Amino acid sequence: MSELTRREAIQRLALSGAVLGGSAAAAKLLYDPGGFGVEAKVGERQVRDFQIAQGQGPRMAIAKSSKDPAELTRKAIEALGGMKRFISNGDVVAVKPNIGWDRMPIHAANTNPKVVAEVVRLAFEAGAKTVVVTDASCNEPNRCFQRSGIWRAAYALGATIILPAEHRFREIRMRGDVLDQWPVFTPLVNADKVINVPVAKHHNLSKFTAAMKNWYGLLGGRRNRLHQNIDVSIADLATFMRPTLTVMDATRVLLRNGPQGGNIDDAKDMHQVVATLDEVAVDAYGTELIGEKPENVKYLALGHERGLGNMNWREVSHVEV
After folding, report:
1. pLDDT digits (tens, 9 = 90+) for 65-77
2. How far apart are CA 301 and CA 198, in angstroms?
3. What is the DSSP string of 258-316?
4. How many CB atoms lie within 10 A of CB 285?
């Protein structure tokens, strides 16, 4: 296929909201509601748990020794035992970056595409059968996926790119304090393993956003309705979604005017990637990168109280590489 024809085909697929690199596994991700219903009105919180056994060794690895995002990502994951610790042969893996905004990588509003691409590469090398990269964007999805650079970088490695569309959401009763019944993006709840790949940045309502807040991309509907109680909604989402691995991109960090940014002077190169089993701890670490204190970010205390992780990140076993 010529380059022109291939480009045109990709554009037509994008405009139709189709799945790139589709397969039977990808079809299951789209249409299987995952066993969650909305009938029951009472009961314990729903949990979608993709975690592995904790085992020995550090629970957080901070890579600082390179300016190359791919190398930082690889070193951070290797310090936790390598991707084979998390991914098994034949797994369907969902990778959840932040692809919320119609911004270029220099704006630091979305996850760096090189970080995402390295996660995809390592997942395939570890034996994954299918790697899905997806998010429910805030701005128009086609533009977000393309302008962020994530579509091109992940697709080039064989990832299945799924754009959000109404038929890919199912009503789920999560039984959270704020999030009870809500439309949930099924490709992110029906995989074998889930890797959260957020970007560290300022947020004008929650003060900071990275791992826990990144689960907003799991939701359909009018998410802005949740902003009146944003900290509890973030804690509800982190209670519902327990990822296999979190890889936080702090290669370039948006220090102010988040979450969307737009002025390159608002972002700063920090050349860090953090891999972790503790979403609360990595968010607490990230707050300090933007000059905030973890105790000032309310959802961290809620996550800590719920036993989701430790907001006193220095108490969590960690290494720097």
Report:
1. 899 999 999 999 9
2. 20
3. TTT---GGGEEEEEEEEEES-HHHHHHHHHHHTT--GGG-HHHHHHHHTTS--S-GGGS
4. 26
Report phi then psi at 123, rounded to 5: -65, -45
Q: Which of 12, 39, 17 is nearest to 166 (CA)?
A: 17
Distance in angstroms (rounded) separating the CA atoms of residues 286 and 192:
28
CB contact set of 314 (below 8 Å; sequence gap of 6+)? none
Q: Is 203 helix (H, G, I), strand (E, B) or coil?
A: strand
Q: Does this model's pTM top 0.85?
A: yes
> Of 235, 210, 209, nearest to 60 (Cα)?
210
Integer Cα distance of 196 and 140 in angstroms: 21
19 Cβ contact partners less than 8 Å away, ≥ 6 residues apart = 26, 27, 30, 160, 161, 162, 163
Beta strands in 163-228 (DSSP E): 169-173, 181-185, 193-197, 199-203, 207-209
Q: Is residue 155 helix, strand or coil? A: helix
Quick one: 253 exposed, middle or buried, by C-beta within 10 A (0-12, 13-18, 19+)?
Answer: buried
Neighbour-count burial for 159-184, b at 16+ CB within 10 Å, e otherwise? bbbbbbbeebbbebbbbbebbeebbb
C-alpha distance across the termini of the chain, in Å: 43
Q: Please report which confidence band the pLDDT of residue 12 belongs to, taking 50, 70 and 90 as the band edges.
A: very low
pLDDT in tens, 162-187: 999 999 999 999 999 999 999 999 99
Identify the H or E element spanning 132: strand 130-134
In DSSP terms, 181 is beta-bridged to: 173
> Would you give the DSSP letter of residue 28?
H
